[in-house]
């Protein structure tokens, strides 16, 4: 069963990112966070984020920054940066945390 979930992971992550982005742009920040949290809940076996968690972590960090939760925002953005380059808006959010 867990292998089935792993094979569907890219599709689930794309869907979760889409839902989160729609909520974020509509100003529904709490709903966006709720859509992203399951996508980043389990790290890879080595304890680092999985590469496919980079974008969800980056967006989560930006949303948490907008919610006034700088420690959590910095944590999410830093985790994203461990497995993938982050965008300029995430860098700016991280710098202001």
* DSSP E strands, number: 0
User: Shape from CA axes?
Assistant: globular
Counting DSSP H or I runs of 4 or more residues, the number of helices is 6
Low-confidence stretches: 1-6
Largest sheet features: none
β-strand percent reads: under 5%
What structural category arises from helix and sheet content? mainly alpha
Helix content: over 70%
> What is the C-alpha radius of gyration, as a whole number of Å?
13 Å
Succession of helices and strands: HHHHHH
How far apart, in Å, are the first and last alpha carbons?
A: 40 Å
- On the 0-100 scale, what is the average pLDDT? 90
What does this structure look like?
72% of the residues lie in helices and 0% in strands. It is globular, with a radius of gyration of 13 Å. It is mostly helical.
